[in-house]
Amino acid sequence: MKTFFTILALIFSICLQAQPTKLVVRAKAKDAKFIGSSIGGAKVIIRDALTGEVLSQGITEGSTGNTGLIMKDPHERYKPITDEQTAGFMAEIEIEEPKFLTIEVIAPANQPQASVKAQTQLWLIPGKHIDGEGVVLEIPGFVVNVLSPQTHEFIKPSTIKLKANVVMMCGCTISNGGLWDAEKMEVQAILKKDGKHLKTVMMSVQDKVNTFEADVDIKEPGTYEAIVYAYDDRTGNTGVGKVNFIVGE
């Protein structure tokens, strides 16, 4: 009888041994492609949902994915829109029993002024991998960087050139008539002088993709702020960039 219970205890012990379990996490820009190496990736943090303990973390690596699969082909149930090159983060977590996880993604990781946090929760079962396409979190918005004027730049009263770089959250190109069509997006600069609204100016792509421009006459000395926003009413994507500059003699 003692031997029987010893064997039973051994079997029970083996059953509860930690098993390495794979979990793939990806970040996909809303109305665009996956967030990968070309824009610095997405930061992934996987936690025990009950204790907050970090079980794995890293950066998504790889390409933005296959444009045809993601943006053009009809999507079918169980048909993946990723391939082997598509950006993702592979975690391998050792667990003895089902564990409830919180998955957090911050993206794009190298654009802190534009990064968005998205999260979800799920149960991870020992030995039951969640790989392939894995868990995909959607990241809404645009990355907006004001190029001109520069931060705290001193400018003489004149016609100044407002410039802003606007891209999808995956870095995908915005151009006139392109797949992400600049002419169907609203990009404007809200100008403030000494803290008060001065004017709002429409910006558009001229000579260079992703670069929205506008000429603005500024004659009065003072401290100025330009708030550049991008908005697509078809998707609800939004993004904002800000800069402060000074006009003086």
Describe the 3D structure.
- This protein has 249 residues and is mainly beta.
- It folds into 2 domains: 19-139, Immunoglobulin-like (Sandwich), CATH 2.60.40.10; 142-247, Immunoglobulin-like (Sandwich).
- 8% of the residues lie in helices and 51% in strands.
- It is built from 2 helices and 15 strands.
- The protein has helices at 2-15, 67-72; strands at residues 19-29, 43-48, 54-59, 89-95, 99-107, 116-124, 130-139, 142-148, 153-155, 158-168, 186-193, 196-205, 211-218, 222-232, 237-247.
- An 8-stranded mixed beta sheet has the order 8-10-13-12-11-14-15-9, with no helix packed on it.
- The model is unreliable at 8-13 (pLDDT under 50).
Please write the CATH class name of the largest domain: Mainly Beta
Let me know the average pLDDT.
Answer: 94
SSE string, helices as H and strands as E: HEEEHEEEEEEEEEEEE
Proportion of residues in extended strands:
over 45%
CATH superfamily of the largest domain: Immunoglobulins
Signal peptide: 1-18
Keywords: Signal
